[in-house]
Design a protein that fits this description.
The chain is an alpha/beta fold. Helix content is 29%, strand content 28%. The chain has a single domain, classed as P-loop containing nucleotide triphosphate hydrolases (Rossmann fold, 3-Layer(aba) Sandwich). The chain starts with 22 loop residues before the first strand and ends with a strand.
């Protein structure tokens, strides 16, 4: 299908300016054996992610969205294809890293936000945010505490710093999980259905935090089933039955 034309002047997409992508997903396949047959959760998906994009990956439940996130983060092994990142000015496949290399790269370059929050229940909000900093060793303990307070202030929860997660609302827990994802100041934020379990008002507040981060220059990849969010992303990918059905920058695939 031919690309649609427009008389309005559009902002140039990074790929139009020959910018090197932050992430390159190339012909990624993920299959499982089911009853002796291959089930393709992902089937030949390819796209690039560029600095400063707010990329929405949209699809119904079971379309392959979360599987794709697991490939991008290196949490799961792919069947074929590759996911490459720009690492020290070199293109490197993250699936060629060993576990320690992958954990180090992910800890410094990628923050992940989950639908289920995944805050440690025995730690205070402050301690939950400090934990990734302590694990990566990027900050002295006193610095990590100051940084954690700063991040809680950013999501307007500083006064709850000493509370355990069970004593705050779901929307507040999600804002803490966003703050935790920012602990090591990563350039890339991955969010897997971050508003899926929230009411519409709380979801709008949480989405606004991501828009603020995008305006600060972060690169954000958000998975959602909610098509109504499409206009608020700078670019959308539609996943259907494990395949890339549409890239809004390229129009129809």
């Amino acid at each position: 299908m031919a690309r649609k034309s427009s008389s309005n002047q559009k902002e140039k997409h990074p790929s139009d300016q020959h910018t090197e992508p932050l992430i390159n997903v190339s012909d990624v396949v993920k299959s499982f054996k089911t009853a002796g047959e291959d089930f393709f959760a992902l089937n030949g998906i390819s796209f690039n992610v560029y600095q400063g994009e707010f990329l929405g990956i949209i699809g119904k439940s079971g379309a392959g969205k979360t599987t794709l996130v697991n490939m991008i983060t290196g949490v799961d092994h792919l069947t074929s294809g590759q996911v490459s990142v720009n690492f020290d000015n070199h293109k490197v496949s993250i699936h060629h890293f060993n576990e320690d290399q992958l954990a180090l790269w992910r800890g410094k370059n990628m923050g992940v936000v989950y639908q289920s929050f995944q805050l440690l229940p025995m730690l205070s909000l402050l301690e939950n945010i400090m934990l990734p900093m302590d694990l990566c060793g990027n900050y002295h303990p006193s610095q990590s505490r100051d940084k954690a307070y700063e991040l809680l202030r950013m999501v307007e929860l500083e006064e709850h710093a000493k509370k355990l997660p069970k004593f705050i609302s779901g929307g507040q827990q999600q804002r803490v999980s966003i703050a935790r994802a920012l602990a090591n100041d990563p350039p890339i934020i991955i969010a897997d259905e971050p508003t899926g379990s929230l009411d519409s008002i709380t979801a709008a507040h949480v989405f606004g935090v991501f828009e603020m981060l995008k305006n600060q220059g972060r690169t954000i990849i958000m998975v959602t089933h909610d098509k109504s969010l499409s206009p608020r992303f700078t670019r959308t990918l539609v996943i259907q039955d494990g395949e890339l059905a549409l890239d809004s920058h390229k129009e129809a695939i």
